[in-house]
Each structure stands twice: as structure tokens, then as C-alpha cells.
Inverse folding.
């Protein structure tokens, strides 16, 4: 296995873990998550669509995480990075949605945290 393949596996594992765990947490406590986000977005234009927006983010997280996980298996099986690349792109889209929400809520610390996650995601898009 090459250094490039190992790098791809590690970065895809990071993204898969991040998004699949986040998706699980949202489903495990959907009502609590919606309640917390209703408060977070109470002064924004999406105050009446928080549940819908959360559903959209959840869907993109699960797709990103699943594609990254499948990308690991594809990379190990035949060295191809196609699925992993799609997972990385979906990860970036998911993080941009989250960043938009944090900026909308004027939560600049939250936006900064998302930017930190964006760095490995965009590296994965470039690398894979």
C-alpha cells in the first residue's frame, strides 16, 4: 500500500467517523437537537424551518459518511479513489451548509469550528 493510499484511507476515515457519528447523534436525540437548534436559530430567517434544515443536513451527513466509508473499501480493494472523492465532495457540501447556518445565526465560534473541519475535507477533494 502506498503513502497516498494510506493518506486517503486516514482522511476518509476521519470524514466517515465525523459524519456518521454526527448523523447518529441527531437521530438518537432528534427532539432535543431540534429544541436546541430552535433556540439557536430563533432570530434568523429559518426560525420556522429548523426541523427541515436539520433533516437536510442529516441527509447530507449520512450520504457523505457512507460514501467516505465505501471509498475506504474501494481504495483498499482496487486502489480507486472515485467513491472516496465523491464522499469528500459531499463532506464539503455538508460543511458549507453547516457554515451557512452558523453564519446566519451569527455564531462565529461555531463557524470557526466548521472551518477547521473543512480543511481536511477540501484536502481530501484535492488528494483523491
Amino acid at each position: 500500500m502506498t503513502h497516498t493510499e494510506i493518506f486517503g484511507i486516514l482522511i476518509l476515515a476521519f470524514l466517515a467517523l465525523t459524519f456518521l457519528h454526527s448523523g447518529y447523534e441527531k437521530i438518537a436525540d432528534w427532539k432535543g437537537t431540534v429544541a436546541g437548534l430552535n433556540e439557536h436559530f430563533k432570530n434568523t430567517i429559518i426560525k420556522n424551518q429548523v426541523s427541515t434544515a436539520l433533516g437536510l443536513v442529516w441527509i447530507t451527513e449520512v450520504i457523505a459518511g457512507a460514501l467516505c466509508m465505501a471509498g475506504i473499501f474501494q481504495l483498499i480493494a482496487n486502489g480507486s479513489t472515485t467513491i472516496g472523492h465523491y464522499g469528500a465532495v459531499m463532506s464539503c457540501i455538508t460543511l458549507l451548509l453547516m457554515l451557512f447556518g452558523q453564519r446566519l445565526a451569527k455564531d462565529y465560534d461555531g463557524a470557526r469550528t466548521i472551518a477547521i473541519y473543512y480543511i481536511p475535507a477540501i484536502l481530501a477533494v484535492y488528494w483523491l
